[in-house]
Amino acid sequence: MEFQSCVKIINEWDIVAARQLGRNVAKELGFGTVDQARITTAISELARNIYLYAGRGSVCIEKEYVNGKSGMKIIASDEGPGIQDIRKVMEDGYTTSGGLGAGLPGVRRLMDEFDIDSFPSKGTKVTAIKWIR
Amino acid sequence: MNQIVFTFITHSRDYMLEEWMNLMKENADERLINVVSNEMFVQTSAEFIDMIISNTRRNNEEFASKLSDFAEKVVRLGWPLSFIIEGLHKFTLVVINGMVMKEQVTKDNQMEIIYDLDKWTSPMKQEIISIYTQTWERTVSLQKMALQELSAPLIPVIEGITIMPLIGTIDTERAKQIMENLLTGVVKQRSEVVLIDITGVPVVDTMVAHHIIQAAEAVRLVGAKCMICGIRPEIAQTIVSLGINLNEIVTKNSLKKGIDAALDWTNRKITKVEE
């Protein structure tokens, strides 16, 4: 692991801090404006999920270098209530908070790789990667 | 205060200043060295030491005003609080070391001297911390107010057409305010068409989109038409990827196109006047 920086999500403004960090790293790595927007939006969704459902957690950004490809990895983890039915939250339009229900499935579409791990009452960890094309 | 300590402190100012500056420079982080010039550092350090010394003279009023002046100054200079507290701590060390060197500290009186120094520096520490936090709290509340002032103005352009330009991050509180301003404004100004311009919104995620959709829906309910302008290409792409449905809302990529469309809806157009 070459580089990792984290932002703790405790209040609503930490979402902005996480987003800002992501945007800076994405710029540094040479992502185009569209991909920068995708990455920041994905971070925003993940950080907001932490804020809304778990109360507190963290968003970490890593630079990834695999087989000559470089990219950016987002790890959003919390020790919140966890997700009961992962298949359901990955469906478009499913929401428990009255939102649009597009967050997690949206993040999966915004990023190249997506992985979610969750244990009820233990917490949730979402990992997503975007490669530079 | 103990007479020996008092005499020492009031008589060896220059020695202490020099020792203290050396100690502090050794431990200072780069951030501070970068923002503060050497002269400034020496000058402010001297002021700091003088201020601490003046506190021994037991003139509380003079000390209090000096302390708040000093705190204001270092806050303005951008000295971190940790540095100042560290400085106060180091100062105590310098005093003890100096007194040990002069062999004024003996086995019998060492505890007394340490207690004395502690009793003397603790209130100073308290005071510095409280001045610092007061300054911060003030700054934060002022900025919050400033942010609220530029939150969500509703601007009438032509009779029946109003614009709400949104700039910056939209959080829950702002979203509420936007909705309120929008609805009261639309009714008060008898708008027929409202243009919400999101050129200045850096990120449109599902929450922001949700608030915009709700606002548009509410505007429709009070009898006006709503249009979203300033959707940049990259925002358009992320909205599509997120799978947000904006089909019910008219959208334009620039405010100019939005105004053109709004004029069209209200059966008007802008023409050049022939001379």
UniProtKB/TrEMBL annotation, chain A:
Residues 35-128 form the Histidine kinase/HSP90-like ATPase domain. Keywords: Kinase, Serine/threonine-protein kinase, Transferase. Gene3D superfamilies: Histidine kinase-like ATPase, C-terminal domain (3.30.565.10). This is Serine/threonine protein kinase. It comes from Peribacillus loiseleuriae. GO terms for molecular function: protein serine/threonine kinase activity.
Automatic annotation (TrEMBL), chain B:
Coiled coil: none annotated. One of its GO terms (molecular function) is oxygen binding. Keywords: Phosphoprotein. Residues 151-262 form the STAS domain. The keyword Phosphoprotein applies. It comes from the Bacteria. CDD domains: STAS_RsbR_RsbS_like. InterPro entries: Bact_StressResp_Reg, Globin/Proto, RsbRA_N, STAS_dom, STAS_dom_sf. This is RsbR protein. It comes from Peribacillus loiseleuriae.
